[in-house]
Amino acid sequence: MRQGIFLDTGYRDGRFNMELDEWLLLRAEEENLPPVLRVYGWQPPAVSIGFFQSLEETVDLKRCQQFGVEVVRRPTGGRAILHLDDFTYSFVVREEEVGAVRGLTGTYLLISQALVEGLRRLGVEARLERGKIKGQQLFRGGPCFASISRYEIEVGGRKLVGSAQRRMGRAILQHGSIPLRKRELSITELLPSKSGQLRGTNLSESLDREMGFDEVKLSIRRGFERIFGLEFIPYTWEEFSPHLESLSKAAG
């Protein structure tokens, strides 16, 4: 069975999280990096905006500062997401690893199937919804969980996972956020007015019980292993970080 890397970097700030995702994408594009499934949280909380979004038009920076929320730009597209009490995944893979699937929509569907498989192992009645948003609509202002794009994951008609993807050469990065519980702060409080109404849900609400990071990460890992036919070798950040220098030199 093919092997991949399962990397748990724990709770980190927004800059670390986005820079590491982009670094892994660069390494996958420049060398034969095995598939990497990374799971992480955010500390302090942050709003991530899509690569194509205008910072000034998308986020109320004064209110973010007031609530102690960082603002960071993702290397992927999509809309603004509040990262507070959520579980975030990122999957970096080379095109040849996804078999016959080609194109953004095809790989998005395959990764969504892996997420649904993992969520169902938790007992979540998740399903894929084929969205109607196309093209530049994905790059406009507004919160991510106020919209449905291609092959989004829903529970009871409400969005559970917000994901975005980027390609670089033959390498693919997709990452996404799954709220673990109901938040005291809403993304709409941190964005300009008329940004759309939320239609999302969270894992604890979906299961009617409290959900923790570690329980979710194991099920999501199993879902990716089944759909992609991989065996993931687990690494903590402390175990993986010594490899960064050697990987950079090999790419250099």
Salient structural properties:
disordered C terminus, BirA Bifunctional Protein, domain 2, 252 residues, alpha/beta, eight-stranded mixed β-sheet, three-stranded mixed β-sheet
Overview of this protein structure:
There is one protein chain. The chain is an alpha/beta fold. It has a single domain (2-240), classed as BirA Bifunctional Protein, domain 2, CATH 3.30.930.10. The chain is 32% helix and 29% strand. The chain has helices spanning 14-30, 55-58, 61-66, 103-121, 203-207, 213-228, 237-240, 243-251, and strands at 2-12, 36-42, 46-49, 70-73, 81-83, 86-94, 127-129, 152-155, 158-168, 171-179, 230-236. Strands 7-8-9-10-6-2-1-11 form an 8-stranded mixed sheet, sandwiched between helices. The chain has a 3-stranded mixed sheet with strand order 4-3-5. β1 (2-12), α1 and β2 form a beta-alpha-beta unit. α4 (103-121) packs across α6. The longest helix has 19 residues, at 103-121. It is globular and about 50 Å long.
